[in-house]
Prior knowledge:
mainly alpha, globular, disordered C terminus
Amino acid sequence: xxxxxxxxxxxxxxxxxxxxxxxxxxxxxxxxxxxxxxxxxxxxxxxxxxxxxxxxxxxxxxxxxxxxxxxxxxxxxxxxxxxxxxxxxxxxxxxxxxxxxxxxxxxxxxxxxxxxxxxxxxxxxxxxxxxxxxxxxxxxxxxxxxxxxxxxxxxxxxxxxxxxxxxxxxxxxxxxxxxxxxxxxxxxxxxxxxxxxxxxxxxxxxxxxxxxxxxxxxxxxxxxxxxxxxxxxxxxxxxxxxxxxxxxxxxxxxxxxxxxxxxxxxxxxxxxxxxxxxxxxxxxxxxxxxxxxxxxxxxxxxxxxxxxxxxxxxxxxxxxxxxxxxxxxxxxxxxxxxxxxxxxxxxxxxxxxxxxxxxxxxxxxxxxxxxxxxxxxxxxxxxxxxxxxxxxxxxxxxxxxxxxxxxxxxxxxxxxxxxxxxxxxxxxxxxxxxxxxxxxxxxxxxxxxxxxxxxxxxxxxxxxxxxxxxx
Length: 471
């Protein structure tokens, strides 16, 4: 532990840059995904009032639910578009310029949501949420890549997990500001909805003082001097030689290769607690507790990921989450018969978030950064991001109706996804802890060779059995 702390002191400028990245990056995404939950009743009331003032009639409940689902899911649609753009933007302009441009767009987006109440225009909320989604899609992939590429090998796991830490921190900040004692009121919901613009402004002011990603400078721009300067600036004298040699090896492996182009229920936390029959007045504080639990567990993950490795955290985390969801479904089904079951449901939700934070939350981004070379990394994040945003869009649009139709049985879908994910990771993913890109690539090849050899043995055995039968 003392060695780990001394490393953190030694790389203090790197850590300062990670803070600047986190504040304006995944912190914003976590904030935007959670804050909509706290503004929900006020926005829906605003929709009704605006509609009544314009057209002289009140919205039907089904229409209101649909319009609200569009507001929620439009953020996810924007996220998918942001993911599609992120690969091209990071390849052309680099991570740093891409994030700075993104901050400008995000500030414009939050001005739309912030002034929507004054302008009496719910269309401004739609535009603002869509633009915020685009920014989130670009931010998520770019931030994780940027953080992974500026981290030395011995701190790589810890640095990669910081994106998940700031994501959880964003959720926690949203839930703190969303309390009725602060900005979670009918008079200030638009201020709460646009708060992320202030944080984007902070990153816009401070990020220009830090360097571009060293791998981007060397492998894509061919700027060896710039790469060395960035490494010295981030890691100090004498701490970059091994990392530079690894980059040179990657450059040799990918020589002539061009840059390729190409999971969560966060929006409806209150609805889940209402299904558990909790009192309305305590739901915001329980939701805040959930966010704090996620933040603490992700921070804990950052301290153990380089000790236990990525593979065990992913497999164990997904299986534990599936088990907890199964127990949660049972407790929700029995909550009407046994009053104490509703409190079991709350405890299980906390345990689910803790299992997610300690396991997949940090390990997924770390693995994605480690198994791809620079020439394929951006495209990998685009594909992964599209899958995530598709899932969020599906959840945002379908979840309210799924709860009405299926009740607690809607969790069976998530249980199946978690179990399948754990099995696939166990079968196909090698451990990446402390390994270079070339070592990880070689292990993938070894696994593929073993698989092919096993298939060949089975085929031969079948042919011999058939031959003996004929005899």
